[in-house]
Each structure stands twice: as structure tokens, then as C-alpha cells.
């Protein structure tokens, strides 16, 4: 997809995309490890005509740098809370990678107190300045930051469950890479749905539904691939040894998901992504599964299909953690 974005960007900058409406996209946390490459990738997206790069500091430099890239999007940097409203005004899609990343030994839930407060403030500003935007939540712990965002929007009378997404695309990106490697397939030709949430055992790749179906994988291989996907974030945190978590692969995944939202908004049909949304697929109120996206956000939340016995037991096992992390997010705004 990125190759096609690059090709389309070149065409867009040559004027071929003229006539499509074009969208305003904001990246909040745009001076960070994810925010900077994600801003660059959004500058290269032909559907973006205005790109707002917001952070508490550092964004004028990032925006000046990114603005020299040869694509049509107009880039502006906004720094500090006083400029947040202008950054968000009438945005169509808001990508949120603002907040602190993990260090070795930490869980995503250890980020809750600090990132919960950051997300709360940013989503309040979204409610006031672009209540119709599709929100792409990257900040961890996603299992809780999405419910936090929902409660903030509800309190402001601006909640639209069709427009709030936890970005779990990196789990799909990882599952595809690990599966293709193990099965000897081309990564670009495989697909693996990943359901649940975005932390440890709440991440559940459904290799029984992977396409194409590899015939050479044993039950032990599937178990190892499942665990590697669940621990993919921790693998990167350990390798970075105190210098943060996944940034480049996350920027890639975040750009893929934002591109899917923009293409759906632009009227393209049959856009299906795994994403963490308000859901009735299981007993918990937020859950990631395949979702068809439309002009107004979520069009259809798809069920889980047929699970293997291994996947069913992993699904049962994740429920208590997912339920409690969702409740923690809700209680953060509503009070326990
Ligand atoms: P980083 O520290 O490099 O960047 C975070 C940026 O957020 C910084 O520039 C910081 O100034 C900014 N920030 C802090 N408070 C802010 C506020 N109130 N408003 C706007 N910006 C603010 O961190 P990173 O590596 O880019 O990671 C960011 C977040 O993304 C972390 O919470 C991390 O856990 C999460 N993450 C999620 C996924 C996923 O799959 N969903 C993957 C990787 C990382
Ligand atoms: C990831 O999956 O890479 C992110 O959630 C960051 C992390 O803390 O692992």
C-alpha cells in the first residue's frame, strides 16, 4: 500500500488527484518518535490537503522540515496548548500518538496515569473543535485510552461510536510479517486478522483464518507465532533498551490505518481493517475485529468467524484483563 501511496503522491503533486475533496488531518504528538515519521507519511498521502502537526513543543521545526516534501498537502506546525484549537479546527481525521512510551520491564498499563490525562485533554479539544473527525487512537494503553476518549466525548455530548478507533494495525502488520516468514510466503500476499485488544494476551491473531492457509505449520508453530505477535511490542522495547518502543513500524501502521479512513471517507468501497471499536461481538464493550469502514466511519463491525479450539481458549483467557482495562478507562472519567 505504501508503494501505491508513494506513486499516487507523485501523481497528486502533478495535479492528477485534483477534484477529490482533500482532507485536513492532524497528528497530535507530532514531534515524537511516532509523530515525526507519521507526519511525513501523511504528507505523502494524496488525500491530505492540510496537515496539522501539533505537540507541546518542537513542531515548528518538524513542520518546516516536512513541508519541503514535494506533495500537495499544506503543512502547519502548532506548539503548546494555546494553539491546539487552531490545529484541530474542522479536522477530518485526528491521529493521536501523544504520550509516554514504555521502558523495559513496564506494561502498557503502567502508562495509564500519565497518558490517560494527556488523552483526556486532547479529546476534550477534539470535541470542541472537530467533533465529526475520525479519531485514530495510538496512545497506550489503547485498551483503556479508547474508553477514556469515549467517556470524554459522551460528557461533552459529542460521542459518535462510528468515529472512535483504537489503532491495532501494528498487531496485524506484525502477524503478517511473522506468518509470512515462517510459512515461506511473500508478506505482501498474506493477511492475518488480529482481534481482541492491544496488550499482551488481549492481542489474538487468528492464524486459522490467515490467507493463504499455510500447510506447513504445526500446532507448536502456531503457538510460537501467536506468542511472538502478542509480545511484538515488548520485543522492540527490549531491543531499544530504554530508548522507547516501536516508532517506525508504528508510524507505518498508523499511516496505513489513517489512509484506510481517508479512502473510506472519500467513497471507496470494501475497506476492511481490524480496529478496536465499540462492539457487541463479545461481552466486553470495546473489542477489535474486522470492521468495514464507510464515509461516516464504522459501517459494519464483523463477528469473529469460526475459531480453532486454541483461539477460542485464548479468547476466553483474555476477557478478564480486557474487561478490567476497559473499566479502568471508563472509571478514570466517570469516577469509580
Ligand atoms: P515519544 O515520547 O517519542 O513521543 C510522544 C510525543 O507526545 C512527544 O513529542 C511529547 O512531547 C508528546 N506529548 C506529550 N504530551 C502531549 C500533549 N499533552 N499534547 C500533545 N503532545 C504531547 O513516544 P512515541 O514513541 O511516539 O509513543 C507515543 C505513544 O504511542 C506511547 O503511548 C506508546 O506507548 C504508543 N504506541 C502505541 C502503539 C500502538 O500499536 N497503538 C505502538 C507504538 C507506540
Ligand atoms: C507496540 O505494540 O509496539 C506498542 O504498543 C508499544 C509498546 O509499548 O509495546
Automatic annotation (TrEMBL):
<feature type="binding site">
    <location>
        <position position="55"/>
    </location>
    <ligand>
        <name>NAD(+)</name>
    </ligand>
</feature>
<dbReference type="Pfam" id="PF02866">
    <property type="entry name" value="Ldh_1_C"/>
</dbReference>
<dbReference type="InterPro" id="IPR001252">
    <property type="entry name" value="Malate_DH_AS"/>
</dbReference>
<keyword id="KW-0520">NAD</keyword>
<dbReference type="GO" id="GO:0006108">
    <property type="term" value="P:malate metabolic process"/>
</dbReference>
<comment type="similarity">
    <text>Belongs to the LDH/MDH superfamily. MDH type 1 family.</text>
</comment>
<feature type="binding site">
    <location>
        <position position="115"/>
    </location>
    <ligand>
        <name>NAD(+)</name>
    </ligand>
</feature>
<dbReference type="GO" id="GO:0030060">
    <property type="term" value="F:L-malate dehydrogenase (NAD+) activity"/>
</dbReference>
<dbReference type="InterPro" id="IPR015955">
    <property type="entry name" value="Lactate_DH/Glyco_Ohase_4_C"/>
</dbReference>
<feature type="active site" description="Proton acceptor">
    <location>
        <position position="198"/>
    </location>
</feature>
<dbReference type="InterPro" id="IPR001236">
    <property type="entry name" value="Lactate/malate_DH_N"/>
</dbReference>
<dbReference type="GO" id="GO:0005739">
    <property type="term" value="C:mitochondrion"/>
</dbReference>
<keyword id="KW-0816">Tricarboxylic acid cycle</keyword>
<dbReference type="GO" id="GO:0006099">
    <property type="term" value="P:tricarboxylic acid cycle"/>
</dbReference>
<feature type="binding site">
    <location>
        <position position="174"/>
    </location>
    <ligand>
        <name>substrate</name>
    </ligand>
</feature>
<dbReference type="InterPro" id="IPR010097">
    <property type="entry name" value="Malate_DH_type1"/>
</dbReference>
<dbReference type="InterPro" id="IPR036291">
    <property type="entry name" value="NAD(P)-bd_dom_sf"/>
</dbReference>
<feature type="binding site">
    <location>
        <position position="102"/>
    </location>
    <ligand>
        <name>substrate</name>
    </ligand>
</feature>
<dbReference type="InterPro" id="IPR022383">
    <property type="entry name" value="Lactate/malate_DH_C"/>
</dbReference>
<feature type="binding site">
    <location>
        <position position="108"/>
    </location>
    <ligand>
        <name>substrate</name>
    </ligand>
</feature>
<keyword id="KW-0560">Oxidoreductase</keyword>
<dbReference type="GO" id="GO:0016787">
    <property type="term" value="F:hydrolase activity"/>
</dbReference>
<dbReference type="Pfam" id="PF00056">
    <property type="entry name" value="Ldh_1_N"/>
</dbReference>
<comment type="subunit">
    <text>Homodimer.</text>
</comment>
<feature type="binding site">
    <location>
        <position position="140"/>
    </location>
    <ligand>
        <name>substrate</name>
    </ligand>
</feature>
<feature type="domain" description="Lactate/malate dehydrogenase C-terminal">
    <location>
        <begin position="168"/>
        <end position="332"/>
    </location>
</feature>
<feature type="binding site">
    <location>
        <begin position="138"/>
        <end position="140"/>
    </location>
    <ligand>
        <name>NAD(+)</name>
    </ligand>
</feature>
<feature type="binding site">
    <location>
        <position position="250"/>
    </location>
    <ligand>
        <name>NAD(+)</name>
    </ligand>
</feature>
<keyword id="KW-0378">Hydrolase</keyword>
<protein>
    <recommendedName>
        <fullName>Malate dehydrogenase</fullName>
        <ecNumber>1.1.1.37</ecNumber>
    </recommendedName>
</protein>
<dbReference type="InterPro" id="IPR001557">
    <property type="entry name" value="L-lactate/malate_DH"/>
</dbReference>
<feature type="domain" description="Lactate/malate dehydrogenase N-terminal">
    <location>
        <begin position="24"/>
        <end position="166"/>
    </location>
</feature>
<feature type="binding site">
    <location>
        <begin position="29"/>
        <end position="35"/>
    </location>
    <ligand>
        <name>NAD(+)</name>
    </ligand>
</feature>
